[in-house]
Specification:
By secondary structure, the chain is of the alpha+beta class. It has helices at 3-8, 20-31, 93-111, 185-199, 244-252; strands spanning 13-18, 45-49, 53-60, 65-72, 78-82, 87-91, 118-125, 131-138, 140-145, 171-172, 175-176, 179-184, 204-209, 212-218, 224-229, 231-234, 238-242, 257-262, 268-274, 277-283, 285-286.
Length: 289
């Protein structure tokens, strides 16, 4: 291809057309933001955008928690990569959501209604495939800078996508974890909230005992919270402790069903599926306090 022909090629960029509620859901899944008052638990997320899906990866290195999601093209109203196969973008999920809310509020103030779609374009892609900025449009336009790969606060553990086999099971050293728990989020969130009040969620003991799924939490003053949750358990008993990342994940889940996967002394996977998406959270065990 001649230099002249290369110069005529459109720049590499990615565009997402999405309903505001859907984008809010994606950012809150990926960032683990429990409500609108606090910054995201994950400081940054990496979006990997193709014509088929948007893959999200986020990592809190201080807490040993990884979040990985895949959102199929049907999740969006439009998904397009121009002049390439993929575009990567690093964003702060809290700041992005706050910026989008500002756009929507301004639109509503000016026109009396919110737009049915957000139009978000990632552009100025560097030679590593990372967008350096994005423009969001909802009647008005807003442009923000993206951290590039060498300025990211955490390295993104892209290998997390290989931790799950074709059946969706978490694998440790190539072997699937032995126990799968199917339960509902309402009970999980209730006991997690109670646990946070006991000792700020420093350590949650997650266990399967005699086929029952239980969560125990005891503080240093002798108080505690425990509960047996209605569930369908397949696999052997185990007992592990997980830190505050477990509480943050539990609070970020949508109402409905959730699946937990683990085994003795192994990481915990918390997985939730919705319409055209699947969100995975992988949490490292901690020593029980």
């Amino acid at each position: 291809m001649s230099t002249k022909t290369q110069a005529q090629q459109p720049p590499l960029k990615a565009k997402i057309d999405v309903r505001p509620t859907q984008m809010k859901e994606l950012l809150e899944h990926a960032g683990l933001r429990p409500d609108g008052r606090y910054n995201s638990y994950h400081p940054e997320i990496r979006l990997r955008i193709s014509n088929d899906q948007v893959e999200t990866i986020a990592y809190n290195s201080a807490k040993g928690a990884i979040t990985y999601g895949d959102y199929q093209s049907e999740y969006f109203d439009g998904l397009t990569v121009t002049n390439g196969e993929t575009v990567n973008a690093i964003v702060n999920p809290y700041k992005m959501q706050e910026g989008l809310k500002l756009l929507l509020n301004q639109r509503q103030k000016n026109n009396g209604n919110s737009p049915p779609l957000l139009h978000i374009e990632f552009h100025s892609v560097d030679n590593r495939g990372y967008a350096q900025s994005y423009t969001a449009e909802a009647g008005l336009k807003q442009t923000r800078q993206c951290p590039t790969a060498n300025r990211a606060k955490n390295r993104f553990p892209t290998g997390v996508t290989n931790l799950f086999n074709s059946n969706g099971r978490l694998c440790i050293s190539g072997s699937p974890v032995p126990t799968v728990i199917q339960t509902k989020t309402d009970a999980l969130m209730r006991i997690t909230k109670a646990g946070m009040e006991v000792n700020h969620g420093d350590s949650f003991e997650i266990k399967v005992e005699g086929g029952d799924f239980c969560i125990d939490l005891n503080n240093k003053n002798g108080g505690g919270v425990s509960g047996v949750l209605s569930s369908d358990v397949q696999g052997p008993d185990f007992k592990n402790a997980y830190g505050e990342a477990f509480a943050q994940v539990a609070k970020s889940l949508d109402d409905g069903k959730v699946e937990l996967q683990s085994g003795q002394d192994q990481r915990l996977a918390v997985i939730q599926e919705g319409d055209h998406y699947r969100a995975h959270h992988v949490i490292a065990p901690v020593k029980k306090t």
